[in-house]
Design goal:
It is a single chain. The protein is α/β, with parallel strands linked by helices. It contains nine helices and nine strands. The chain has one domain: Metal-dependent hydrolases (TIM Barrel), CATH 3.20.20. The chain has a six-stranded parallel β-sheet with strand order 3-5-6-7-8-9. It has a three-stranded parallel β-sheet with strand order 1-2-4.
Amino acid sequence: MPGFVDVHSHVVPSGDDGAKSVEDGLTLCRLAVESGTEILFATPHAHAAWDTYPRTPERLAQFDAAYAEMRPEVAAWGLDLRRGWEVFPSEVGASVPPDFLLEGTTAVLIEFPGFWLQIDDAIGVVEAAALLVEEADLVPVLAHPERCRAVAADPGAVRPFVERGWLLCLNAPSLVGGHGEIAMRTAWALLNDGLIALVASDGHSPLRPPVLSDGYQAVREQLGHERAHALFDGSVLPWS
């Protein structure tokens, strides 16, 4: 297996639905490194103000303190832990896009609204956010399209995003049924149509770990080593 690069996880405590303590976060990081991950981005939620986990000064402080404690410890294990954010589309314009960078890249992780949200024109909302990132000379990385109602209904609707050079990023559990039948079917449709640039874990907990190996093996079996390697090794990212 390649040394995995995982651009989407919730392994650093930030007051969201990921790790609840530094100890929990270290447990998740250990799972990541033991399953082949070499670079892991901690990407707390930056939700809209009306949603569960908006980006607040208190959450920023919690994330900063936990990250500073965790990073040197996991580095000793061979894991390069980096900062980032998972940004709800409406929040991209609430701050300067570089504030949300995946550390060491010129990319910003924007989430497709999940199936549990009733969002009018979800694809258009993501497009508007991605355009703001593009206008800042940065690259949008668009998280879990397979979990968005609108994309599941019409996977081809995101082809123009790919044609612009935006990077679509699946959740690895979707490839093996971890997010349900619809997400799995949509994930493979997007992948087989050549619309996916990379795969991440979106790991939150030991029950939903930051592990890419199962998804990697599924892609390797279906599409071959070269395709699997390119989706999991981070080579498509715009490294700075």
